[in-house]
Amino acid sequence: MLKGFLRHKSIQPLTPPSPTLRASNMTSQEQNDWQPELTDEQILAFEQKIKDEEAEKIPLVCQKESIDALEKEFQDNKPFLEKVQKLKETNDELRKCRGDGNCFFRAFAFAWFESLMRNPHIFKAGVEKLKSTTELLLSGGFQELAFEDFYDVTLNQLEQIPDSDPDLLLVNFQTEEISNSIVMHLRFVTSAYLKIHSAEYEPFLIVESISIDQFCAQEVEAFGRESDHLQITALTKALDVPVEVLYLDGSSGDHVAVHEFWPDEASKGSRKALQLIYRPGHYDILYRKE
Amino acid sequence: MDPVSRRLLKELNDYQREAHNHPEIIELTPADDEDLTHWRATIAGLDQTPFQGGLWNLDVKIPHNYPMQPPTVKFITQICHPNVHFKTGEICLDLLKTAWSPAWTLKSTILAISLLLSNPEPSSPLNCDAANLLRCGDLVGYESMIRMYTQLFAMKMTEEDQ
């Protein structure tokens, strides 16, 4: 009991002794029991290092590329490969996003902005919807001070769309300050929507036995935290933007499972949903064959 | 101006405008005018708690990607509390680590630390002696120890006054 108590993560020396040094004068039983212990700071710093290394590899949002890239990625993985080959019948391109934990929000934002650029008739409604999010955030309990900078950047980027072009949009989404502000605003919007509709969504959290407020702080608002069904559902409803997520996994069969997120059942099928492709742990943007 | 400085200036204005609403924060300000990423704060122990009458200085360091990442806050004035390291002043509070949300501000962070004083979490201690007293239910012993250290470390000003 006492041993367990003393082993608590927070009371360790800053630098754990090297395992090899310690192991030399321990019995084999002790060696099995002994684990290097890290402080919270060390664990966070380590996670950050992994993320930073990942960040070096690819831009926040990449150029479009042929879906053949997926084929190449999974050439040695039969269940995945079969699905990719089937997918090629309907989709021909994809756009990768950096795997920094924000990929869902970034992919969503880019695909949404891009769709507003391609379809001027829905642009105005998109801007109005984004403007309405300040009300949503205030009713969700957010302080204006905490969200206004992110909101301003997001609105500014959206309003530029009619005078902009796809290349500039991409450049802006590759600029950390702009791109991360947009991610942050969408995270706050998602969180506010979940909090306001907590009665509907709290039941989904019973398994994890945390409140909606805890969930929102730790899983939604926290920068770099990965997203799942709940976040996608909330964001598509909050912004009235339908999304289809195509799940590429190792299950049997050659069809990717499509999860549809429609803001409301009535509008289902009446407009085109953004398409994202999901591989375990990561979202990218997918394009239909024209 | 870079976005972090812009945000911090807004926070400073907001705090100064609302300071009267938060009597437990005595001071919250950049440590010097040149560097907005280093702040200091002073909090007062709340009445009706064993921390009553004490004043603690805190050191606040703001990362370059604030508010995506939390500030690093530690006690400068020594304090005896289950979740604060007795020697280094390190604070064990989930919001400063894993539960940080960019919706927090420096003010709400300092308020949370002030709240932590009277709401210790003995199951994740940085000060095992203080935590153990609570864990075995010795509230009288715990409170008198806190009072003693509050008097020793956090009431220096009144001693000088006397």
Automatic annotation (TrEMBL), chain A:
GO terms for cellular component: nucleus. It is an enzyme of class 3 (hydrolase). Its EC number is 3.4.19.12. Residues 21-34 have a biased composition (Polar residues). This is ubiquitinyl hydrolase 1. Coiled coil: none annotated. GO terms for biological process: protein K48-linked deubiquitination; proteolysis. Residues 1-35 are annotated as: Disordered. Belongs to the peptidase C65 family. It catalyses: Thiol-dependent hydrolysis of ester, thioester, amide, peptide and isopeptide bonds formed by the C-terminal Gly of ubiquitin (a 76-residue protein attached to proteins as an intracellular targeting signal). One of its GO terms (molecular function) is ubiquitin binding. It comes from Umbelopsis ramanniana AG. Transmembrane segments: none annotated. Keywords: Hydrolase, Protease, Thiol protease, Ubl conjugation pathway. Residues 92-289 form the OTU domain. The lineage of its organism: Eukaryota, Fungi, Fungi incertae sedis, Mucoromycota, Mucoromycotina. CDD domains: Otubain_C65. Residues 1-10 have a biased composition (Basic residues).
From TrEMBL, chain B:
It holds the Pfam family UQ_con. Transmembrane segments: none annotated. Residues 3-155 form the UBC core domain. Keywords: Ubl conjugation pathway. PANTHER family: UBIQUITIN-CONJUGATING ENZYME E2 (PTHR24067). This is UBC core domain-containing protein. It comes from Umbelopsis ramanniana AG.
